[in-house]
Amino acid sequence: MIARLAVSPRGIRELSGDHTVEPHEVKGRHAAVVGLIRKHGVLVVGGPRDRQALEEAIRAVGDRSPESGRAWTQLLASLVRHRRSRAVGPGVDVAIDDVVDAAGLHATWSGRIDVAMLTDRVAKTLGVGPSDHSAVEQRSGIEVTTARRAERAECFARMRELRHDRIFTSPVDRELFWSTVMEPIVRHARHVSLSDRYLFFRLAEWDRAEQVAWLLERIDALPGESRRVTLLGSYVGPKSRQPAPRSADQAAELVRRHWQPAASGSITRLELFGARLSPQLPHPRHMHCDNGFAIQLDKGFEPFKNPRSRDDVRWDFHWTKKSLEGFRAERSRLCEHRTSQQVTIFERD
Fold first, then answer.
1. Strands 308-309, 191-196: parallel, antiparallel or unpaired by DSSP?
2. Is residue 135 domain-shared with residue 25, that is, in the same domain?
3. CA distance 236 to 245
4. pLDDT digits (tens, 9 = 90+) for 206-220
5. ∠ CA(221), CA(264), CA(250), 5° rounding?
6. Which of 108, 125, 240, 273 has minimal Cβ neighbours within 10 Å of its Cβ?
7. Residue 41 and residue 13: Cα distance in Å, rounded?
8. The domain spanning residue 273 has which CATH number?
9. Containing H/E element for 44?
């Protein structure tokens, strides 16, 4: 669902076309690319020189189309705020527009980006034909496209198809769902929240195949970022006959029994918010990350209690400000409920 991409500043300028292109078309072209990156992109820049060239290109776009310039400026600010803008590496100062052939693309960018959005001339040199939307440069494995053609590039076309399908039909392999939908989002996050009113109920049944431990294992095994994970769910009252924890502390103890952090895992802090189950509590069923993405699950995390689910998994991908604000509001209602309790389950030294 997410691609690391480098964007050519010259390619952004090229997108506006010459002065025969109507203003509404210029605006539409830029809006399409900005929207694509907002939905699916982690921007990778070569260093200070590359970032400066990008900012200059955006100013040039703004001179031609003020609204388009603002859209690009707001996009960059959003990517920085959600930590979806990063440099190739410390002390490195290269520029994507320095790339003129396959050797140059491989030398600096291989393994660091998935997609290179280049100028028409360079894309043609790297194998993008007149009728192609993109082409994979074989040595680096990087998909090459241009700003004009990016929407239909193979990488983004697959993501769009996946996003629109919104269903994995049974039997569902939970590892496939993780690697296809969840893992690409979590990989670029520093804080992951798993919210489901019944998240801790399976733990109380002592089912070793349950979903909480499985999700924590997968997150902990990811390389790179250090991550904080927050579990949000509910517990039941002392007179309830449901097989569920009777307090947030009991839920935390059940999590500890089921999941053990890896010696060098990525989870540095695991915390839990639990409130007593009641009809007044919100019933969020989603994974929300601090990189500006969320996955909403029609049946919560219950389908992942076993390696293969007998039920279909219906899901939605969210990235808009309105959707994310809704998830944050649900989280606040649960965390601030009068019965809510917070427990730190694990913290790495």
1. unpaired
2. yes
3. 6
4. 555 589 999 999 999
5. 75
6. 240
7. 19
8. 3.30.870.10
9. strand 41-45
Give the amino acid at 41.
G
Which ranges of 247-320 does DSSP label H, i.e. alpha helix? 248-258
176, 125: one domain: no
Give the mean model confidence (pLDDT) for residues 67-81.
97
Identity at 67, one-letter amino acid code? E
Q: Over 80: is that where the pLDDT of 204 sits? A: no
pTM over 0.70: yes
pLDDT tens for each residue of 228-259 = 999 999 999 887 888 789 999 999 999 999 99
Task: List strands edge to edge, sheet with 285-289.
Answer: 167-168, 313-318, 294-297, 285-289, 191-196, 227-235, 267-276, 341-347
Q: Alpha carbon 348 to chain centroid distance?
A: 24
Q: Which long-range contacts (CB under 8 A, 24 or more apart) does 141-144 make?
A: 141/110, 142/105, 142/109, 142/110, 142/113, 142/114, 142/115, 142/116, 143/114, 143/115, 143/116, 144/105, 144/115, 144/116, 144/118
Q: List, in order, residues 6 or more apart from 178 with CB less than 8 Å away.
A: 218
pLDDT of residue 5: 97
* Structural domain span for residue 124: 3-158
Compute the distance between CA of residue 331 and CA of residue 94 in angstroms, rounded to an integer: 41
Distance CA 14, CA 186 (A): 33
Rounded to the nearest 10°, the torsion over CA 210, 215, 216, 217 is: 90
The total number of structural domains that make up the chain: 2
> Is the same domain home to 186 and 71?
no
